[in-house]
Write a structure and sequence with these properties.
A hairpin with a 7-residue loop joins strand 6 and strand 7. This protein is globular. The chain is an alpha+beta fold. Helices cover about 35% and strands about 20% of the residues. The protein has a 6-stranded mixed beta sheet. The C terminus is likely disordered.
Length: about 240
């Protein structure tokens, strides 16, 4: 089973490639309070595609990693969901799902029910209901979400760092402009009425400004780190 490939379809913060890489290889994504252990197989995804799904995203419950509501997929909501599909092994898919539930990686779940019927509840957790949302290039497209839809969830607005990470993923995966990202996120249940499009746009502008300000410093640090004195070049100025 572990050798088979599946498309893991991300619709939340894993839209951002930098964030998803922490699930595969381990690490702590920017803005998060948690370090991820990574998958048993830490190799990067074999391929990735920007995709859309019928339905919508809502924010609910409370994230111990980001604070505020977490993103969930509900196929019954109106509209379309912007997502990113990563081609990974079934083993990696199972390990990503385990990390979402703060469990140890290593369980190889039998996903045959999800593949046959389109839905399978692996466990009681918020992210342990596996959905088959399509097929691509001969491989099933799978995601995981809560066992119920937005109508039965305890809605909760997402935090600023979490929204920023989602926004980065949407721009990176789909090439959306800031205004389109802001309009999409502010309309999601849980965010609606709490986050406005101008407020989300302001978040992105601040994040872009911070990234631009840190880039020159990072480049300068890399230049000095790479510098090695040549033969006969003193490390200290000569005395006298």
């Amino acid at each position: 089973m572990c050798a088979d490939l599946v498309w893991y379809v991300a619709y939340g913060s894993n839209l951002a490639r930098e964030r998803f890489s922490c699930y595969l290889a381990g690490g702590r994504p920017e803005g998060a309070t948690r370090h991820y252990t990574g998958c048993r197989d830490a190799r990067p995804a074999r391929d990735e595609k920007a995709v859309t799904l019928p339905g919508g995203v809502y924010f609910a419950f409370n994230s111990l990693t980001w604070g505020g509501g977490m993103a969930f997929y509900d196929a019954e909501l109106p509209g379309r969901t912007a997502a990113r599909a990563y081609l990974v092994t079934r083993e990696q898919f199972c390990d990503v799902m385990a990390q979402e539930m703060r469990r140890e990686a290593g369980a190889d779940h039998d996903l045959s029910q999800a593949l046959a019927t389109g839905r399978q509840r692996i466990g009681p957790g918020h992210y342990e209901t596996v959905l088959k949302v399509g097929e691509r290039d001969g491989h099933p497209m799978l995601t995981f979400t809560a066992p119920h839809g937005a109508g039965r969830a305890v809605l909760n607005a997402p935090s600023a760092p979490y929204l920023t990470m989602l926004a980065r993923g949407l721009r990176d995966a789909h090439g959306w402009r800031t205004g389109q990202v802001a309009s999409y996120l502010r309309a999601c249940p849980g965010a609606r009425g709490v986050w406005s499009a101008p407020a989300i746009s302001a978040l992105l502008r601040r994040a872009d400004a911070a990234a631009a300000a840190s880039a020159p410093r990072a480049s300068l640090q890399a230049m000095f780190a790479a510098f090695r004195p040549g033969p006969g070049l003193p490390l200290e100025p000569a005395a006298g």
